[in-house]
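Renewal narrative, Specific Aim 1. Our central claim is that a sequence can be written position by position from structural information alone. The example that follows is taken directly from our test logs and has not been curated for this report. It begins with the structure tokens describing the chain, in the order in which they were read.
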């Protein structure tokens, strides 16, 4: 135990005596560990944000839409896909495992105004049938949602997000107030529960929700989607199968033809994000390994220099009875401690960057314990791998020849 403590003391003494050289040597290790810890913290934060935000689909719910996520299909293939319609909605509602279904559409980039104030042109307009609030887990904070009668009559009523309410009606109760969208007046009947930003981006509370019948009068049919709620959580897979088979029949698809529609659920969205996060993880590990390689070369260089500078010291210690394994352990320990110090600094910097992202971007970042452990283990491994050769070289020095060195 005393021998280990003595070795560690000598190792730290060497670093303290050459602080600038030691810092420059371990810089690559610091960068590698920082990359792993900060990127894993960001990815975990994105995953937490995605899981929270995916609750926009209500309990036991999924969605059928014309276009898939991502760019897997060409524009020509996408253009040939048929649009969903009211007939699809009614047929879906009749499936045995389906509790209810809602049609929806949306469009962004609008200015919304009152007689006194006007929003920026970044308001999103969402529209749906009255069931939309149930199938998308949209909660009204004050007031109410629009009714079946208002939907069928095409009345111009809206439910707005709290950010838009603060912009247009500061200090006032927005319920019963009138706003204008593209020159048409709408009455505010409710406000939506605050959601915040999505993935650190724009606010989800800067929006207007209106009946789909009114939306069609203003903008026509754009991206008609159907959100569906199964009767129970156990029936969700069966409901998805029933809807898939129904849509294939309605679109007259042959058995070997692929679906010309897309079924979206929380699970499919999470799967898509996991694929993206895996690519990011691999890329960050590549950067980490490159940085660790650079840091390892630096450790190899400084340890070779240390052996050269301390040749006489090594000779004296061997002449006084120090064994080869003690000299080997000393220089190997110095290399490992040097790289571990870089790993600790990198982990601390990575955690700080992850918390900075939480504060700046609003992401619920969380550094996984395995990322910290992996960074420290890789740092120690690099130090040991690149420190063995200089340590072995020091242990093999002839004490007589070493003592003659000036």
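The sequence written for that structure reads:
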């Amino acid at each position: 135990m005393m021998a280990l403590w003595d070795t560690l003391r000598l190792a730290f003494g060497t670093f303290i005596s050459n602080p600038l050289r030691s810092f420059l040597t371990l810089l690559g290790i610091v960068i590698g560990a920082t990359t792993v810890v900060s990127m894993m913290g960001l990815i975990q934060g994105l995953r937490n944000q995605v899981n929270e935000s995916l609750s926009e689909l209500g309990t036991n719910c999924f969605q059928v839409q014309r276009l898939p996520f991502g760019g897997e299909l060409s524009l020509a293939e996408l253009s040939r896909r048929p649009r969903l319609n009211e007939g699809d909605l009614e047929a879906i509602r009749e499936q045995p495992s389906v509790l209810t279904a809602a049609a929806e559409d949306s469009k962004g980039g609008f200015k919304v105004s009152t007689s006194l104030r006007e929003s920026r042109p970044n308001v999103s307009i969402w529209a749906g049938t009255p069931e939309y609030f149930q199938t998308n887990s949209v909660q009204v904070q004050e007031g109410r949602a629009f009714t079946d009668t208002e939907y069928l009559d095409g009345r111009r009523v809206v439910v707005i997000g709290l950010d838009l309410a603060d912009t247009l009606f500061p200090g006032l109760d927005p319920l019963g107030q009138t706003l204008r969208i593209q020159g048409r007046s709408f009455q505010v009947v409710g406000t939506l529960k605050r959601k915040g930003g999505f993935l650190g981006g724009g606010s989800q509370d800067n929006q207007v929700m209106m009946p789909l019948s009114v939306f069609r009068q203003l903008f026509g049919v754009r991206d008609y989607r159907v959100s569906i709620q199964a009767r129970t959580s156990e029936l969700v897979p069966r409901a998805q199968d029933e809807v898939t088979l129904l849509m294939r029949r309605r679109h007259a698809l042959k058995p070997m033809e692929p679906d010309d529609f897309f079924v979206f659920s929380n699970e499919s969205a999470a799967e898509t994000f996991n694929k993206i996060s895996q690519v990011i993880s691999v890329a960050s590990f590549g950067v980490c390994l490159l940085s660790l390689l650079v840091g390892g070369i630096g450790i190899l260089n400084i340890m070779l220099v240390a052996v050269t500078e301390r040749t006489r010291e090594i000779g004296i210690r061997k002449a006084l009875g120090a064994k080869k394994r003690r000299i080997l352990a000393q220089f190997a320990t110095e290399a490992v401690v040097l790289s571990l110090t870089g790993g600790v600094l990198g982990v601390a910097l990575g955690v700080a960057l992850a918390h900075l992202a939480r504060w700046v971007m609003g992401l619920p970042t969380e550094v996984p314990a395995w990322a910290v452990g992996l960074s420290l283990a890789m740092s120690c491994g690099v130090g040991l791998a690149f420190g063995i050769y200089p340590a072995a070289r020091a242990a093999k020095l002839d004490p007589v020849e070493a003592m003659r060195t000036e």
